[in-house]
Amino acid sequence: MPGEISLKEMKALEGQQVGVSDWFVVDQMMIDTFADATHDHQFIHVDPERAAKESPFGGTIAHGFLTLSLLSALNYSAIPRIREQVMGLNYGFDKIRFASPVRSGQRVRGRFILAEARFRGAAMLMTTYDVTVEIENEKKPALTATWTTICQFDPKDRPED
């Protein structure tokens, strides 16, 4: 459990690693379910025999967007919860790079560096993280991204500047 932090403490963490997630297995069932949800049934994802014979990966690989979508789950075990937060929202990505494929059965984890934390309006904290999704026992990461989220809170909880 990553614990809790206050809104006031967030700014002091800029430039620091705020967490590393637990390892998370990306198995064939997850890949198949993602393929069904996105209608992306390319053989390199869903046909282990064909992927072993015809792809350079030696078997099936996760969709890049599946790996990206795991950031939500990875951050829950890595980033401290903001005590005053009422709701969190994805705001978007400034940069995403898919550096290496995640093979079926591999484990991944997220590494989160808080690049920026700034207040917007009376009740929002915008946070930007430099994120790396690492693959266990691999030198290259699965992906790197710059991810912006919004923490909404009650305006009465906003710290004084």
UniProtKB/TrEMBL annotation:
Entry superkingdom: Bacteria
Domain MaoC-like as annotated: residue spans: 14-118
SUPFAM superfamilies named in the record: Thioesterase/thiol ester dehydrase-isomerase
Family matches, as CDD domains: NodN (cd03450)
Gene3D superfamilies: Hotdog Thioesterase
Protein name: MaoC family dehydratase
Organism: Rhizobium oryzicola
